[in-house]
Amino acid sequence: MPKYRIIVDLSDRRLYLLDGNIVKRAFPVGVGKILSATPTGEYTIINKAPNPGGPYGVFWMGLSRKGYGIHGTNNPSSIGKQVSKGCIRMYNEDVTALSKLVTIGTRVTIRQ
Predict the structure, then answer these.
(1) Catalytic annotation present for 39
(2) Minimal CA–CA distance to 96: which of 61, 62, 66?
(3) Contact at 8 Å (CB) between 99 and 61?
(4) How far apart are CA 38 and CA 40, in angstroms?
(5) Sign, Cα dihedral of 97, 29, 67, 57
(6) CA-CA distance, 4 to 63, in Å (whole number)?
(7) Which of 59, 61, 74, 112 is most exposed, with minimal Cβ within 10 Å?
(8) pLDDT on residue 2
(9) What is the mean pLDDT of residues 29-34?
(10) Which of 13, 59, 69, 71 is catalytic?
(11) Range 63-84 average pLDDT
(12) What is the pLDDT of residue 45?
């Protein structure tokens, strides 16, 4: 069973890493544009890939909702904004740190 869980709060554009109910880390994120909003709900991390190529920065963690994930970015100025096609963008150093802490099967709650 995964040690941690993740909450992505779309309104404050932050990703929280929790151990039980205790926030261990908080990271700023970029989220989906109004027309391609990040979907709210309960998901799990189903795959992890370093150096995925393209606009995904240095790491990709795919969610159980097809086509969506938590990933790095080649455009750090997009963090904190509503700019993506629905994925959760992180600074490359933050997604690298997060990827070392979470496992496949980690629960991800995305909330408004």
Answers:
(1) no
(2) 61
(3) yes
(4) 6
(5) negative
(6) 15
(7) 112
(8) 84
(9) 97
(10) 71
(11) 97
(12) 98
Q: How confident is the model at residue 89 (pLDDT cuts 50, 70, 90)?
A: very high
| CA distance readout (Å), 40 to 7, 8, 49, 107 | 11, 9, 23, 13
Q: Whole-angstrom Cα distance, residue 108 to residue 87? A: 13
Structure token pair of residue 99: 């990827």
Across 36-59, average pLDDT? 96
Active site residue 77: no
What local confidence, expressed as pLDDT, does residue 1 receive? 76
**Mean of pLDDT over the chain:** 97
pTM: 0.97
Q: Residues 6, 10, 58, 87: which is the catalytic one?
A: 87
Using an 8 Å Cβ cutoff, are 43 and 99 in contact?
A: no
Residue 96 in tokens: 């690298």
Distance in angstroms (rounded) separating the CA atoms of residues 37 and 87: 9
* Both structure tokens of 48: 């992890």
* Domains annotated on the chain, with CATH: 5-111 (2.40.440.10)
